[in-house]
Amino acid sequence: MSRVVDPRERDRAHTETRYVDFYAEALKASEQFRHDYEGRLNVVKSSQMPFERSPDGLIRHIINEKMDTKECCIDIYMQFLPPAGASGKHRHLSEEIFYVVEGQGYDLHWDVRFDCKDKFEWEWDAEPKRFEWKQGDFVYIPPYCAHKHFNADAANEARIVVINSRILKPMGFDWFDQLENAEGF
């Protein structure tokens, strides 16, 4: 079935404004990415995993977007929780998981509720939920849930390996807030 197109619309569609090379540039960028990707790390040696004294506490980056690895989707770090200490309190739009390598403790999670009318409207629970954890446990933290990790042992350090996605960042959702710093940071 043939549709009649208004000639004015056809003329507007062909009206010259300017020419760009977006498509050609994307092809070149993809080719350059593939070339550069071949040189990225497949294996990250322990000696290549830097420490950081961050507002969230002492962490050791295992995989980070700035470490030139072939991993393009997730960040992984080990977090060190001092005896009877805690991380900072933060939230980010991506969900997070962590594995308890050593120690025991608990997490506080402030769940989020939101609505999207003319803009996003966020609200967090006043009272957190408490989740106990110990060596060998896996903990899930929902998207944009404010959370904080606590070491329940007054004599020994706890270590957790934290994994979160960086996929949402390039989609325009790089929402990450440090709500409280870890003690001493």
Topology:
Blueprint: H1 7-14, H2 22-38, E1 51-54, E2 57-63, E3 74-81, E4 89-92, E5 96-102, E6 104-110, E7 112-116, E8 120-124, E9 129-134, E10 138-141, E11 146-151, E12 158-165, E13 176-180
Antiparallel strand pairs: 1-2, 2-3, 3-12, 4-13, 5-10, 5-12, 6-9, 6-11, 7-8
The order of strands across the largest sheet is 1-2-3-12-5-10
Continuous helix count: 2
Enumerate the spans where pLDDT stays under 50 for 5 or more consecutive residues: none
Structural class: mainly beta
Intertermini distance = 69 Å
Number of DSSP strand runs: 13
Sequence of secondary-structure elements: HHEEEEEEEEEEEEE
Percentage of β-strand residues? 35-45%
**Main sheet, how many strands, which sense, barrel?**
6 strands, antiparallel
Mean pLDDT: 92
Question: Measured on Cα atoms, how large is the radius of gyration?
Answer: 23 Å
Range of helix content: 10-25%
Shape: flat
3D architecture notes:
This protein has 185 residues and is mainly beta. The protein has helices spanning 7-14, 22-38, and strands at residues 51-54, 57-63, 74-81, 89-92, 96-102, 104-110, 112-116, 120-124, 129-134, 138-141, 146-151, 158-165, 176-180. It has a six-stranded antiparallel sheet with strand order 1-2-3-12-5-10, with no helix packed on it. Strands 9-6-11 form a three-stranded antiparallel sheet, with no helix packed on it. The chain is flat and about 80 Å long. The termini are far apart.
